[in-house]
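Session log. Operator J.P. requested a structure for one protein chain; no other inputs attached. Running the standard single-chain path with token output.
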Amino acid sequence: MCGRVKLEGDFNRLKAAFKIPNDYPAPNYVPSWSVAPTDSLPIVRYDAKQGHRTLDLMRWGLVPLWARDLKIGFSTINAMAETVDSKPVFREAFYQRRCLVPIGAFYGWKKLEPKEEQPYAIALANGDFMALAGLWEDWKSPANEWVRSFTIITCPPNELCGQIHDRMPVILPPAEWSAWLGEEPAGIDLLKAMLAPYPAEEMTIWPVSTRRGQC
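Structure written below.
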């Protein structure tokens, strides 16, 4: 599960890392060390009509087009890699609306005693942004308001993340971004093969304050 993340730093660095055009307007996002479900994050997509990547705020917790209200988003913050191409709530987005979720780190909680847990932050060892594999959707509310939302895909953990949880978010290396975003052709077998644990030796983990709350 991935239920709390961090995204800080300036947007110029973020746009450069994900090759967003310099003149693309920065979203109205306040950097945060504790982003939770239903909060918004800047999401990277490929706009085929404009011919470049975009960076737009979306609500965490995917709301499919056919949903009656936003409540479904509480149970769709994550999508399992094993079933993302077949589960109805995620299937169409997997085939047509894939995205990258840039973050600085994600959090996990390790049980120490029945009523005690220690939170940890997990990031790339080189300090680069993580690009999590995500899906996005447009949903129109009964009041005719459009809401854009996203989910983060998870997979079995690597050796590092397995110390604290039985799942981890899928982290995509830069070489796979174009195929995942749909900038170049990619078959289902290739896309599914990308949804694998990231190398543990390229990641780092450290304990953080319990003030970050529970996932």
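Operator note: The longest helix spans residues 88-96.
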